[in-house]
Design a protein that fits this description.
The chain is 70% helix and 0% strand. By secondary structure, it is an all-alpha fold. The two termini are 26 Å apart.
């Protein structure tokens, strides 16, 4: 359940600092949260996650695309989304499997 995972993790982070998260868990937790908010059909608040200091653990890694994807969705930029799907969507099965949801979400965000 992507929504439940995301909500519980975000709530947990509200009561802790980035320093309290184990170093070996920062990257995987950030990636899982980003993917959860992207593919969950119920969630559209990307900026809340973008503002989390924990997400900086994705910078300069092979998974930095996930942080970039949050920014693309937050802005509702369809052209950047299409580029993202061509690159990251081809290598990430979860994005590939949920492309219909992603297509709907990006168009709604562009409309807003």
């Amino acid at each position: 359940n992507f929504k439940e995972f995301y909500s519980n993790t975000l709530q947990s982070l509200a009561y802790s600092t980035v320093q309290e998260v184990l170093e070996n868990e920062k990257h995987s937790l950030s990636l899982e949260m980003a993917l959860s908010v992207l593919v969950s059909p119920e969630m559209y608040n990307f900026s809340e996650l973008i503002e989390q200091p924990l997400l900086q653990s994705l910078s300069n890694t092979a998974d930095s695309w996930a942080y970039d994807a949050l920014k693309v969705f937050s802005r509702g930029n369809i052209k950047q989304y299409e580029q993202l799907i061509k690159s990251a969507g081809a290598s990430n099965q979860l994005l590939h499997d949920n492309q219909k949801i992603l297509d709907i979400k990006i168009r709604l965000m562009a409309f807003l």
